[in-house]
Every structure is written in C-alpha cells, then in structure tokens.
C-alpha cells in the first residue's frame, strides 16, 4: 500500500516489436484497471540484455515501448512509467534476492529452458537469474497486483515464494503479490501455429500481428490465419485456430465467445477472418495515431522520463533501505 492505494506493478521487455499478444494479454488490462491503483509501469531494458542486443537498437526500442505505454492510454502524469535501468534499486535488490533463491527453483523455469535452447551459444547467468530480477521489480514496489499474460505465471509464483521465504526469516517486509489475468486474451496464439503463443521473436512474421503493422498487413495476416477443416465458427479446443481468432475478436470487441458463435452462425471463415481483421484495426489505428503525435513531442516525453525515474527511485528506496537493514548491511551515515 503506497499513499493509501493498493499498488500495481508490471513491465515489458524492450526486445523485438510488440505484438497483439502483448497488447491484449497485458497492456490493454493495464489501461483498464490503472485508475484503482498506484501504478508502476516499467520498460524492463535490463531484462533485455540477457539476449544479445544491438545497443542503438535497444535504446530505440526502449523509447518506442515507453511511448507505446502512453499511446495505449496510460497517462504518465498519473502512472509512473519509467526505464528499469534508471532505477538502481532493481539491480541492488536482485543481488540480495539472488541469495534467497535456489538454483533448483531457477532450473525449473520453463522460459529459461526455452530461451537456453534458442540461444545455446549464450546461456549466460543473467538468463538464468532473470526471474530474480523480475521478482525484485515487483517486490521493490510492494506490489499487490501484477497484470500479466499466462506465460508469466511461473515467474510470478516464484516471486511469491521468494517474498514468503524472506518474510518468514525477517518479518513482514514484502507484500506478497497476486497476478491479474484478464478474462480474455491471456494467451494469444500464433496465427500460423495456434499451438504456439504469439511472440515477438517468431521467425514467421505472419504468425504475429505487430502493434506497428500497417492496416493492410493486419487484414492480410488475419485472412491468412490458419483455421480448421470444420468450416464453422465454434469456440472449442478441437479448433485451436478458430478458438484463437475468437479470443482475439472477443478481446477487441468486448463480446463473449457464445455471442460470436451466434453472430457467425452459417457464415464462412472468410467473413469471420475479415471481421477479426477489422476489429484489430479498430484497436491499432488510434494507438498508432496517438503514437505518431507523441513522437513529435520530444520535450514532453523527456520530462516524463526524468520525473518518473525520480518518483520510482523515491518509492523503491523505501523498500530497499528496509531490506538492506534486515539482512544486516550497516546503516548509512547522513
Ligand atoms: P514480455 O515482455 O515477454 O511480455 C509482456 C507482457 O505481455 C504478455 N504476453 C502475452 N499475453 C497474451 N498472449 C501472448 N501471446 C503474450 N505474449 C506476451 C506477457 O505475459 C507479459 O505480461 N518477464 C516479463 C517482463 C517483466 C515483468 C516484470 C512483468 C519483467 N519484470 C515484472 C511483470 C512484472 C516478460 O518478459 O514479458
């Protein structure tokens, strides 16, 4: 609890181009629930370097991501939107929490296994301790709520375990966070392979809709999406391609799957895919227009970056100093 409100923390990696999955699984929910919380939305650039990055490109993507948070509807005057690397408490708390996290726990992380397999030439220790940095992000702000997609649940469970372990040793230091998973869109799948989640790093660009795709591309990708042989728009596990498209359509329009089944009863996949494409366009078009406007306003964005980094540093230091004291570091002489 900060300033009398419950606290919300979340973040995204500044790696690759944001997808519709990132938007529907996370960003959209951030916007809809923010008013009820004291919020911290972080561009997690420190997480990004667990995979090799081109430095200039990383800087550019981080800024784009920060502006996308704002373009999606998060007012940076009300929401603390900042870069992880600007707040040194993230790294400092990570070190301490590393000493309270077991190798066995990190070895079980499926995302580590996936990434290690994908980047076999660079299995660095940062990739291994990545979930500890994520735990530090969340615990540093005493977050009550963490809105994420389903793929982050294992990391969030670990965060809770670390917090409880630390609290058992040192008293009530950390708030134990809860995940917030949206009713729809929590796991958007690839348009080309509905068994796989839609991802920024998909080698097949037709599998993902990127937030910056132009509108013709969005429609084309939806039209080309893999469906099934049944020929009817039905929400069931046996038709993963259609189920995924219904999920996307519901997330964009606020409709329920049963309503969509009725709407497209007796109509073919072609018409349905077109409607999905148009629903996605209706979300992405205003987002891109707002992004273009923000891109013109360098002074405003720079001011927000500076002010919010200071604000995040102020709040994070409260927790950090407490933790440092608990583990036995000498007090600072003022
Ligand atoms: P990242 O950058 O991979 O993804 C950002 C958010 O998007 C969600 N997401 C999806 N949701 C639905 N369908 C999909 N296909 C899909 N793909 C991604 C993710 O669940 C996430 O909510 N480790 C995190 C970033 C992070 C973080 C944190 C998140 C670092 N520290 C603290 C919350 C709190 C990550 O790599 O997310």
Find the count of extended strands (DSSP E, 2+ residues). 5
Poorly predicted residue ranges = none
- Which CATH top level class of the largest domain fits? Alpha Beta
Radius of gyration over C-alpha positions, nearest whole angstrom:
21 Å
Measured as a percent range, the helix fraction is 40-55%
* CATH architectural grouping of the largest domain: 3-Layer(aba) Sandwich
What distance lies between the first and last C-alpha atoms, to the nearest angstrom?
Answer: 27 Å
Q: What descriptive keywords fit this protein?
A:
single chain, 334 residues, mainly alpha, Rossmann fold, Tyrosyl-Transfer RNA Synthetase, 2 domains, 3-stranded parallel β-sheet, two-stranded parallel ribbon, 13 helices, 5 strands, binds tryptophanyl-5'AMP
Describe the protein in words:
- The protein has helices at 20-33, 45-48, 55-71, 89-98, 103-107, 110-118, 125-140, 153-170, 215-224, 240-253, 257-263, 269-295, 298-327; strands at 7-12, 38-43, 80-83, 145-147, 178-180.
- Helix 7 (125-140) packs across helix 8 (153-170) and helix 10 (240-253) packs across helix 12.
- The mean pLDDT is 96.
- The radius of gyration is 21 Å and the shape is globular.
- The chain has a three-stranded parallel β-sheet with strand order 1-2-3. Strands 4-5 form a two-stranded parallel ribbon.
- Strand 4 (145-147), helix 8 and strand 5 (178-180) form a beta-alpha-beta unit.
- The relative contact order is 0.14.
- 54% of the residues lie in helices and 7% in strands.
- With 334 residues, the chain is mainly alpha-helical.
- It folds into two domains: 7-185 and 298-327, 3-Layer(aba) Sandwich (Rossmann fold); 215-292, Orthogonal Bundle (Tyrosyl-Transfer RNA Synthetase), CATH 1.10.240.10.
- Residues 9-13, 21-22, 25-26, 44, 47, 134, 137-138, 146, 148-149, 151-152, 155, 185-188, 197-198 line the site of tryptophanyl-5'AMP.
